[in-house]
């Protein structure tokens, strides 16, 4: 039963093994006050180290929390996901359409975090 | 998915959300990029149309803005007000027959003095906002919160409504015609206000002409002292909101604007509704969160963005490059429990993620709220409005109300204060002050050197000196403003205009009581006629 269900991956031409091994370069942006937690820097170009499994949003959040977040992690990440009130856009599309935390990151993806909260 | 505990590896879960192939629900052709209201997926073009249409529909449905009217846009630089500005630009610039037709101006208030920002940060933020405002080609006013300390006390007066008569007209068209006719001559009350407060508006004129910063360090320090004297963040935010309203109102009155557009979004208003209930502002909910707020009489506050959720606004700004500036405020990076407003915000946001209909349900509930009109309308206008927030006083409750019960329990749990003025019966109720002014001589009431007696020979014209400062204001304030004042360490740090107006109201109220036997009540007239 598992074999008949297709795996939804964008840019599915590439070989599965190639995708998993290469490090992923991402362009991250923070807006709406979220940049305050990152020393006021709004744009970040990051390269995620390669690992055996593909990177998904959940792991990206863990990575951001560990490497980019300068202060007050509870204002950005809550549990597994972003804090309620922070919108995420992946390549200018709502991440709810992409599967939210389960979306697998591709090379050169553009991920934007916009805070809609009053106090940033 | 068929069994409860079945294990799947991660790849299978992708299938549950069809992503790439989801089509826009409106045009059914393009790929959807955004989900609104939890189920509707829109593509880029349809979303833009939907967004623009909602703004015009909101203005068209509540026919309050007349063509040619001067409207002041309150732009804080944040996403919602910047979005509102871009919608106004869009609506006014169209060649379509249904072009919006009013005359906009913009006001931006720099609140950095209250939130403790450095001057360089404030200058930078204001410069950023100014570049956005300049690109709109509308006249703009940049006002500093420090100027709130120097407002005239006339700002607290409720002006007579210029458009009250117009709205009871037979139809919108007739009302518009009437408005255009009356607008030929400037409304007399507005003219007086203009002449009267011309001097105090000079400082704002300077800023508008791009002259050097009128804010002196003393002003900033005075403002910081004011906010430092407030103990809780809740009360600070409340006070900031009040000062902001007064500044906007003053600018609108002096520059001749009859309407003010605020950029409160649906999410923000839902949070405001719940937190206002917690703050004790339940009596004025309809005015605080409704589309139009006419508590100030001559200037009406409208909220055209109240149908947009913050998600829609953020997406629109991002996709269509609407510039907005983030300015840190009082509650930036504050914890969840730092203030009532913050707590409500985090509560609503958390609930919204699990139950996406939360905000819209609260919004729909707020639409159904209406203010019950008080029985006396314009007979005693100045006595029935709260001094600071200008909503109807809700503290003239009957003997056996819950409010009186809280007052009694408060008195009973307090230690008896020093001085003869503090007696059990006068706390909270607008009773007569203890008669301890010098008998036949001049009225010589002065309290902590701040307020001088008026020097007249009549007894009972001013308050006696023994009345503690907090009690002076309490009877003039609504319940929630009382709570805000209670959180301040000293009431005389309040801006001078508030204290002066309080003084004036007290004198008038006392005088009224003195001659109340000789006044013909309006109800008696009606009965006898």
TrEMBL record, chain A:
CDD domains: Ubl_Urm1
Keyword set, alphabetical order: Cytoplasm, Isopeptide bond, tRNA processing, Ubl conjugation pathway
Cellular-component GO terms for this entry: cytosol
Locations listed in the record: Cytoplasm
Cross-link Glycyl lysine isopeptide (Gly-Lys) (interchain with K-? in acceptor proteins) placement: 120
Pathway assignment: tRNA modification; 5-methoxycarbonylmethyl-2-thiouridine-tRNA biosynthesis
Residues bearing PTM 1-thioglycine: 120
PTM comment text: C-terminal thiocarboxylation occurs in 2 steps, it is first acyl-adenylated (-COAMP) via the hesA/moeB/thiF part of MOCS3, then thiocarboxylated (-COSH) via the rhodanese domain of MOCS3.
GO annotation, biological process: protein urmylation; tRNA thio-modification; tRNA wobble uridine modification
Purpose: Acts as a sulfur carrier required for 2-thiolation of mcm(5)S(2)U at tRNA wobble positions of cytosolic tRNA(Lys), tRNA(Glu) and tRNA(Gln). Serves as sulfur donor in tRNA 2-thiolation reaction by being thiocarboxylated (-COSH) at its C-terminus by MOCS3. The sulfur is then transferred to tRNA to form 2-thiolation of mcm(5)S(2)U. Also acts as a ubiquitin-like protein (UBL) that is covalently conjugated via an isopeptide bond to lysine residues of target proteins.
Family of the protein in this entry: Belongs to the URM1 family.
Protein name, UniProt field: Ubiquitin-related modifier 1
Species per Swiss-Prot/TrEMBL record: Esox lucius (Northern pike)
